[in-house]
Amino acid sequence: MKSISQSKAVAGRGGSPLKAMTRFVGAENLSLIIALILLVALIASQTPFFFAPRNLMNIGMNLSVVGLLGVGMTIVIVSGALDISVGSIAGVASVVSAILVTYAGTVAGGIFAGILAGAALGVVNAAIISYLRVNAVVATLAALSAYRGLAFLIAPEGRPIGVLDQNFALLGSGRVFETAGFPGIPISLILLLVIAFIGHFVMSSTVFGRSVYSMGGNPAAARLAGINLTRMKFYIFTISGALAGLAGVLVTARTSSGQPASGTQGLELEAITAVFLGGAILAGGKGTIFGTMLAVVLLATLSNGMNLLGIPTFYQLVAKGFLLVVAVAIGQWRMARSERAQALAAGGHRGIAP
Amino acid sequence: MSDTPILEILGVGKAFPNVRALADLSFGVRRGEVMAFVGENGAGKSTLLKILAGDYRLDEGTVLLDGQEVSHVDPSQARKAGFRLVRQEPEIVPHVSAAENIYVGELPQKRGVVDFEKLRADAKALLEECGFAGLLDLNASGDSLSPAQRHIVEIARALKPGVKVIAFDEPTSSLTADETQRLFKLVRGLRARGLGVIYVTHRLHEVMAISDRIVILRDGRLVGVTETAATAPDDVVRMMVGRDLSYGFVRQETTRSDAALEVSDLSSRWHRNISFTIRAGEILGFAGLVGAGRTELAKVIFGDLPKRSGEVRVGGIPVNIKSPSDAIRANIGFAPEDRKGEGLILVRSVIENASMAVFSSLSRWGVLRSKMMIDMVSPLIASLEIKTPSLEQEVGKLSGGNQQKVVLARWLAAKPKVLILDEPTRAVDVGAKAEIYRLIDNLAKSGIAIMLISSEMPELLALADRIVVMQGGAISSPIEKLDASEERILSFAIGQHAA
Fold first, then answer.
1. Contacts of residue A210 in chain B, CB cutoff 8 Å?
2. Residue A297 has pLDDT above 90, yes or no
3. Closest approach of chain A CAs to the CA of B32, in angstroms?
4. Which of B157, B254, B292, B434 could form a disulfide with B470 if both were Cys (CB 3.0 to 4.6 A apart)?
């Protein structure tokens, strides 16, 4: 999941199958895969319903919303920032798309307007961060509140808007390849796969993606290498906003209603947790879409397992908060370890002061 | 005056990875004397002060303060033992009063509450004792203090009870002539009180005016200790320099061609009316003391800091540079002094770091071509002899010299006409230095105009075709290589040229 050239360099080297595998998916991702296998084994041993096709499909549908946010959040966090407003942006997009589909009768227009609304709010975030020089965390925290209010304001009387269009509902709950013994693959999951694939390609192989890694790793060095940080921030927050918009459209399609709050509240926490669990670090410069997607699957499985086992929501909320701390702590520990290794290798003192 | 030293430094040595900062240093500071430390940038003066203040741990040797061993202390223990350092750039808490700044960390208390009355009274008495009464409003908030007033706060902090040895690090750099006279009066008063006073400065006339003895350091070693009264300024300068550390490197004469970089009448917040020309294939050295404005000049030319007026031409064509990307488009490269802070993305790979300035030329429709990247970077790795296990190695895991070469590789990839190198061999070990000199020489031979900023005189003398000296935001006229000597450059840099 590193740059293209790395996979080539990797392919050139020999070693045991396990080592080759570790190199291919990365040590961090391998530990996520192992954790996922253990978790699945644990849940399956406690309840027979986990492997029920319906349940698996449910997991697939649920993770698509968080997954879309996770793709955008990975880009934001790798760049060294944070976007806490994505849940609220999804709320606005949900309402906007419902209004278009219900009152204007246009499904395509509803999807497009939802994405556009998200992108526009992302541009506002970027403008506040770049031109008013407000720290990204504070700016998007303010946006978290403001956009949630905005969603209620544009919803007629602040109430959810019912959406009856069957074609639109397919986006949320439709399935393909459905047969007698197989419930099919949710369309929303396929959408996520496509977006994640594009996201991965953009981050690993384009000038934009590599520039995101550079600015996250060291903004001063990136600037001096000719990368326009302001322009990059606009791109990054616009992408994050647009993906949050798409996630909001999915929420509308799945619940058959434009929801100002329910269904999108708290999504930012899940997306941020997934990105850190997926191997990104708070300081920026590290993290992959692939890792985030693994973490999204892990989180969705965990949440599903807790529901199946009848664990009350309150405990689930505590568990989610706990997980975020664990995810970041692991990242910090990994960084500290590699910094020590660097200091040893490079004799990394800043040199004698004059 | 007693002849027993109040501060004894016995065989002190300190090494940083790759750099030997101090070696086998021994001397004493007596009670009631002012001892000046002189030496070039990097001679070890600041390192020694930081060891005494407890910022750094020494590797070998012993330090005795008033007979008590203080070889391994932390900053608060050093303070308590009686060593006080007046730093060149004092730490000032911005939003509290000057009085609180003086007593920060040890505010007087009454029943658990800060006793502001006692605080002000104590601070006032302290200022009067120093002779700085009237120069500082004790109620003014920290961020409103002028550099001189900040210095006064720092001096007052140092003079709180228990002081035995006080060290001033470049104390007059932010003081006016009148304030300097008051400082001298204070220093003489401290000497009369029987304190040991250490006075570190680049300004030779101050050394001659205020000190009793002079300690001369060079490359972390003691060159000599002399009685000021029996020493001429020229002797001190001669002892400060006079070495051959160019590692046997001698640059061949180059043929000079057309001007590659012309800077005319450039002014900025840091500079006034700077004009110079670098021809293709020429290395123009920039000498000067730390803080003279050389790094800022590089950044102004490179578009990272704003200029006020003036013109920059590359290859005869005027260029309007407003950002680093403009500069790169105008074929200018810049390898900054702070390699880790501004040069490299330590957590990313060698290939990314080497190619990031030219990403767009290695891509089609925004998609990077990995083969083009490898084809471009691999030969650079080979020709610069960068020791790395693979192109994917994290740059942070390379040695200092190899890291610097990755920065050079980045700019070679951009095929610049003008390359600005700011302290290219800082924190690079001795062996790699000679190699980097050879590389810089080769770059110039290939026709690149090089602006070389260095605080190491031997480096400038070995590499530069001509040298300008920068002082206080202005530059001297170029000194031809044949006429250049360390003494001559140093005398320009410390403003002694007329003398």
1. 352, 356, 359, 368
2. yes
3. 28
4. B292
> What is the reported pLDDT for B130?
80
Rounded to an integer, the average pLDDT of B260-283 is: 91
Which burial class, exposed, middle or buried, applies to A177 when counting CB atoms under 10 A from its CB (0-12, 13-18, 19+)? Answer: exposed
The Cα of B299 is separated from the nearest Cα of chain A by a number of Å equal to 9
Strands B332-335 and B283-288, sheet pairing: unpaired
Q: What is the pLDDT of residue A342?
A: 60
Which residue is closest to A342 within chain B, CA to CA?
A: B397
Rounded distance, CA A113 to CA A248, Å? 11
Fold of A63-306+313-331: ABC transporter involved in vitamin B12 uptake, BtuC (1.10.3470)
Question: Which has more pLDDT, A6 or A321?
Answer: A321
B428 to chain A, minimum CA–CA distance in Å? 8
Note whether A136 and A83 are within 8 A (CB): yes
* Residue B211 reports pLDDT greater than 80: yes
Q: Is residue B246 pLDDT above 70, yes or no? A: no
Tell me the C-alpha to C-alpha distance, in Å, between residue A86 and each of A192, A238, A300, A327: 16, 11, 18, 20
* Closest listed residue to residue B417, CA positions, set B258, B302, B260: B260
- φ and ψ of B148, to 5 deg: -65, -40
The reply to whether residue B399 touches residue A346, judged by beta carbons under 8 angstroms, is yes
Average pLDDT, integer, range B422-450 = 82
* A230 part of contact set with chain B, CB < 8 Å: no
Please determine, for residue B372, whether its predicted confidence score (pLDDT) is greater than 70: yes
Q: Is B131 on the interface with A (CB under 8 A)?
A: no
Distance CA B268, CA B272 (A): 6
Domain boundaries, chain A: 63-306+313-331
A352 to each of A4, A17, A79, B431, how far by Cα in Å?
39, 46, 32, 17
Q: Kindly state the DSSP code that residue A80 receives in the 8-state scheme.
A: T
> Rounded to an integer, what distance in angstroms lies between the CA atom of residue A121 and that of residue A150?
11
pLDDT of residue B33: 94
- Cβ under 8 Å to A: B residues 412-431: 426-427, 429
Beta strands in B17-121 (DSSP E): 19-30, 33-38, 60-65, 68-69, 83-86, 109-110, 113-114
Q: Which residues of A touch B342 (CB under 8 A)?
A: 218, 220-221, 224
Nearest C-alpha of chain A: how many angstroms from B259?
A: 24
The beta-carbon neighbor of A217 closest among B21, B44, B346 is B346
| Model pLDDT for residues A186-225, shown as the tens digit of each residue | 899 999 999 999 999 999 999 999 999 999 999 999 999 9
Q: What is the mean pLDDT of residues A329-352?
A: 63
